[in-house]
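sorry for the late reply, my laptop died twice this morning and i had to redo everyting from scratch. anyway the thing you sent over, i finally got around to it. pasting the sequence first so we're on the same page, its 402 residues, then the predicted structure underneath. double check i copied it right bc i was rushing
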Amino acid sequence: MGEGEGGGPGAGIGAFLRAPLAARTWREFGHLLSGLPLSLVYFSLAITGVGLGAGLFFTFLGVPVLAGALALCREFGHLERARARSLLGVEIADPAPIRARESGALSAMGALLKSGSAWRHVLYCVVHVPFAAFGFGVALVFVTTGGACLSYPLWFWVFPAFTDQPGLQLFQRDDYAFFADSPAAIALTSLIGLAFTLATPWVVRALTTVDRFLVSGLLGPSRPDTRLIERESGRGAVADSAGADLRRVERDLHDGAQARLAALSTGLGRAKEKLLEDPQGPERAAAMVDEARSEVNLTLRELRELARGVHPAVLTGRGLDAALSAVASRCAVPVRVAVDLPARPTAAIEGIAYFAVAELLQNISKHARSASVDVWKARERLLLQVSDDGGTTATAELPWRS
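ok and here's the structure:
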């Protein structure tokens, strides 16, 4: 449950009043305070390295100096992502590693110079400085002003005791100066401090929102890198699904068809012995052969079911909508199926979706009276949702490939 949720207006007011003391506020404030000195270091080293490397670029020293500056900025990115993760609670994936096509120092430096991710890190080191200075100043002013004014009733006596002023000077106009030395002025000063203190968490949160945007936009993986990661995860999901299917096929063959074929072989051997040894062998052998035929029919039926489970023909021929409707028709409870896809995904994604829904429906049929299956596309994702009448909902998300 987030802040300000689940309790009506009273809970929202309580969260608002507690916000200045919340750990999140102080973590974000620490992020703003530490951001300025770090950004000054980043800016100085990035500008020096890139400027020196660019000036020497047409000499032998320019390339390694510029490549070293880019590598250093990428290391700064590691530190900033860790800082955002610990203080802002933002999980930002590392950019794709820089891979040189060939081994050797020159190839590695060339890959660095061509890396868009490395240049985005340089851009972050440059553009973050002015905002870091602005955020540092604003946050520090709000925190110190709020704390000092709010606690003024506790230390207002310092002015008449140790200075020649009767109290804190709130403003001055020409020869007139207003000092907070009366009870009303002291209370007013404290109220001003309270207002600053209550506003501080939201000011700090707004400032760190910009930091989140800069870190995620410049120091995270690029869109092509993200697509590559999704593709790799999709391949992993396909491999896991294929491995599970192979294990299921092996188990079904071992426990079903293989056991029945072994029993069939034994029965036929006994029928042969009866024909050779027993005077009434033909009649008993005929009965055994009938039993063997029954076993053959059962085995053939199991093999057909097994083949249908590996990859049903309806899924290959007519797609996910028809295949899921077929699964729903065989379910022990009524199932509503709604598939809203602009096109057919790849066969691998269709197979994963089919077997996931089939497994969920098999479990639902044990404890529910009705169910529903919804499949749709959202952005670059294939989304599955299986719900039953008991309020249980299972969802799955797959990368979209068509």
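The CA atoms of residues 18 and 198 lie 9 Å apart.
thats about all i looked at so far, will dig more tmrw
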